[in-house]
Specification:
Blueprint: E1 9-16, H1 21-29, E2 34-40, E3 51-58, H2 62-67, E4 74-75, E5 78-79, E6 81-85, E7 88-89, E8 92-93
Antiparallel strand pairs: 1-3, 1-6, 2-3, 4-5, 7-8
GO molecular function, one term: RNA binding
Protein name: RRM domain-containing protein
Organism: Xiphophorus maculatus (Southern platyfish)
Amino acid sequence: MSGIPGTAVVQVTNLSSAVSSEQMRTLFGFLGDIEELRLYPPDNTPLSFSSKVCYIKYRDPSSVGVAQHLTNTVFIDRALIVVPCAEAIGGCLVLHTFPTLRNDRPPTPPAEKRPCLISYGS
């Protein structure tokens, strides 16, 4: 599968609001050893959300290609979307952002760095 060469991180979107970290770890753990898993919003969030997103870092980057095969698999009540995600740069995960359009302004340029979602090392 094509993607980001050498990355060990996948982003899983279109998750049911009922999904838990434990369920994600169980499902994606069959595909490779998980080094780190982050679910947003977290399990203990008191607010309700319509969907969730999960970032999974595998020990072996080859697990990313395997995990992508779960795209369109119905889990709970939604079809999963699994895509490779950029690795850390300077200890911080870089997310790809898209310009936003506002009524009176030109598109906002994409940011290069976002707050860390997955910590790497120190």
